Amino acid sequence: xxxxxxxxxxxxxxxxxxxxxxxxxxxxxxxxxxxxxxxxxxxxxxxxxxxxxxxxxxxxxxxxxxxxxxxxxxxxxxxxxxxxxxxxxxxxxxxxxxxxxxxxxxxxxxxxxxxxxxxxxxxxxxxxxxxxxxxxxxxxxxxxxxxxxxxxxxxxxxxxxxxxx
Length: 165
Prior knowledge:
This protein is α+β, with helices and mostly antiparallel strands. It is 27% helix and 38% strand. It has five helices and nine strands, in the order E-E-E-E-E-H-H-E-H-H-E-E-E-H. Strand 4 (35-41) and strand 5 form a beta hairpin. It is elongated, with a radius of gyration of 27 Å. The relative contact order is 0.11. One of its GO terms (biological process) is potassium ion transport.
């Protein structure tokens, strides 16, 4: 990608980018905060095929989308706090498990550990949001969600001899 920065006296700066696909985009950032974005056809870098303007907030939002970090400021802190406490764990049910041939309800997984079974992977098929009456079978993979303590409690309850956690 080719990148060029040019000072525009009395206006601001111009940034021109030519991508690996030979497409050109130019961005003019005014001292006022206004942004003008110009798109050019591959065969004509002199006259823009399309142009639009953004204010500072719109430009910041578009930039975060392009960077893959789009966020809504008022909800971001809540999402980060929620995600820090969220753990998703995959648990393989082997032939020695005490859970075999018992339902989620019978095992009282949520009541005893606080974790929720959000899916069961069985024979290359996924049962999402399984019913409490779903019977756990040998070879199933349980997908659990909870916080770290709840996941730890799950292993202490259903895999007490397992010292991995």
